Write the structure tokens for this entry.
Amino acid sequence: MSDFTEHDLIAFHLNELSLQRELELRTALATDPELAAESQEIAATLGLLRDHAPSPVVTAAVAEHHWQRLRPALAPARATPIVWWRSFSLGTVCGLALPCLYLLLLHTRAPGPTPPAPAQHVAAAASPDRSSPSTQAETNPGTVRNLLQPAAANCIMPAPRFQLAENAPLPPAAPFFANQQAALQQSAAQNLAASATASPPRVLPPAADGLSSLPVAGRSVEDLPRSTNQSVMVESAPLPVETASVSPALSQLPNAPRKLSRHPVTIVAAALGNLTLARTADSQTVSEASAPGGLAGIEVPFSRWLGFRVEASSHPATYGYKDVAIVGTSAAPNVGQIATQQYEFSPSAVVRFPTSTRVSPYLQAGAGAVIFVPKGASSPWVSRQYRAAGIIGSGVNVRLTRHIDFTAGYRGVIYRTPLFTTEGNPPPGTYSGGTLVRRTLSSQPFVGLTYTFGKGGSE
Amino acid sequence: MDSPELQAIRRVRDGDREAFRFLMDSHLAAVLRVTERITGSPVDAEEATQEAFLAAFHQLGKFREDSSFGTWVYRIAVNRALNLVARRQREATWKATPVEPTDESLLPPSALPNPEAEVLRRESAARRERAMQGLTAMERTALVLRHLEDHSMQEVAQALGVSVSAAKQAVFRAVAKMRRELSPPAPPPQRTPRSFLKEAR
């Protein structure tokens, strides 16, 4: 019993066998009549194919016919088409650069006038500006005065502080709280009357939680007229004063001066490794050679916890296919390879878990697209492939400087395995037909650096 | 001294489209032969040939003068024929018939002298063509290029854009399929009275 297959016999007749193998086959043909009969059948098939192959004879009339059909279409040569990867690169760069530029401008816009320091507040309270609209409060010595200082729109306000006059009446304890609502209503009515006579009415934004029960010098903060700038102080007396910090709720008042963003935009550049395990289904094994690549991205945070990230990556990917149901021979291996360059573009949501000012781990999930561009192939059998992809990942940022972070992490890219073929015509050595290996998980660990724009690291 | 082919290429690049006639005439036979062998239809072969020469004309600016125009346009023609066969196989109901009545004088003439030989040739060719239809376009092209056009496996693989092993696999699969299709049908089993009774039961 010989170990020669039909493919070996075909290779023999097409002169594709190695010399050693050919000698072995000739010996086997001399001793094995069944093998010799099969060999003769293959030779007859090949002879029949060659004998009846079309061999058109091109006459002058045929040539003229072709020329007359071709000639009208021979317009002047077109300009060289834009190479696809140039347009892809340009589009990616523009797509990343434009939002980056916009957000950079947005986050680095010049702030308004510098807000006064806390010490300046004290000084201002000690020598109140008579022309200020707070004269209404001065008519009631010993009560709270509201120093409505016009402040810049974009300044960081220090925590408001109260100055308590030494002789100011302390808020009553139980009686006050027992009759708080009545007192508040009475005070509000008095305040309203005084405001109507001494100064134009001011807009009162809704009080924040916890303010309605905050007594200050015998009156609640709710009694105080408010405006867009909340700086509440007790009227200063000629005697030494003492200060006390107000409830944090006060700093949370609506319409508080806008702070600079504490979550600036970052861009990332990293090197990644593409690692994919071989997977087998229905006798087809698909593998992908590990390869290094590059990753670039931009992250726009919405808050300290949430952000939006857009990433683009590229790496070479050589796909290997093996049909394990076929016994490969030297003449007819059962494996095939397709070399590609793989591009991925993916927006994703990022959830951060900042554990300290220096370390910020995160998780990400999103969806995108993967493009497989075969290298050096012009055949329709290895056409460019496009796949939708899901992205999951995690990583950590470690601050190195105010603007530079070290970043490392893992990305998992899931997509349907590329076929590199047109439907119904699988390339040989790759698939025996159909979409057999459905999904690919491409594991991509990465390390790189991020750059934080604006007030990076000011948290 | 530049070859006439190279001079024609430069003239075409300079805007003289009539010079392309020389290039087409020089390689029309080879291109028409391979496209007809791949597509199996004179009509499709003509279409693929036209597309190939048109593509060559438009891409002549990219053609490197140190390579052969014939090889280049041949490869374009192979790809066009491949595309055409793949398209036809997807359109299962498609039947290649010309829009205008075909002028028989423009089709390549038969080399056989008498009608009987021509009938036999056509029957064999039809049988062969039926068998070829059972191949995928990839297998068919690989078989044509390797066995009928006598290209090496490396050239076949390059033309198809696949590895050499993949090209070999395609050729071997194609020959195996053709062998099964073209081999004479197995004789029916001898029917004995016993087997007849067994079938009747």
Q: What stands out?
A: The CA atoms of residues 203 and 227 of chain A lie 6 Å apart.
